[in-house]
Amino acid sequence: VALLGCASYEGVLLLFREARRHLGEILSAFEFFDAGSADVLQERLNLSSPLASKSAFYVLIEAGGSNAAHDEEKVSTFLESMLEEGHVEDGTMATEPSKVKNLWASRERITEALTHDGYVYKYDVSLPLRGREPRLGGA
């Protein structure tokens, strides 16, 4: 599991395309959230970001197949190339179960953090990726 910081929604989309291209069949999760969600986690649950720097968007990637050593190498190579090419501002990777759980908490506990400010109505919908940026406040 990896948590990555991206400067823009366009960067999130690029990362999604590249993850599908490089990780293919072992890509099992690709989820993102924005800086506002990360702030709420810190303010309401005292859950600090595992990343050293703050980003506009965060991406959580999980990958795994039948060959753990091969999969870990494939993910590491992908992450290194995304960092080197400047598509990712910061990132961390975890394989140890307790650290994996902590990375997932960055994504999964957002709703819990939001309930501290009142009711939360949550809907699980799928939307096309194209045209989302204006609605997400992108530049």
UniProtKB/TrEMBL annotation:
Q: Which residues form the FAD-binding oxidoreductase/transferase type 4 C-terminal domain?
A: 1-129
Gene3D superfamilies linked? 3.30.70.2190
Its required cofactor(s), as named, are: FAD
Please tell me one Gene Ontology term that the record gives under cellular component. Answer: mitochondrion
The GO molecular function terms of this record are:
flavin adenine dinucleotide binding; oxidoreductase activity
Q: Which residues form a coiled coil?
A: none
Q: Which UniProt keywords apply?
A: FAD, Flavoprotein, Oxidoreductase
Q: Which InterPro entries match?
A: FAD-bd_oxidored_4_C (IPR004113), FAD-linked_Oxase-like_C (IPR016164), FAD-oxidored/transferase_4 (IPR051264)
One of the Pfam families matching this protein, by short name: FAD-oxidase_C
The name under which this protein is listed is FAD-binding oxidoreductase/transferase type 4 C-terminal domain-containing protein
Native species? Alexandrium catenella (Red tide dinoflagellate)
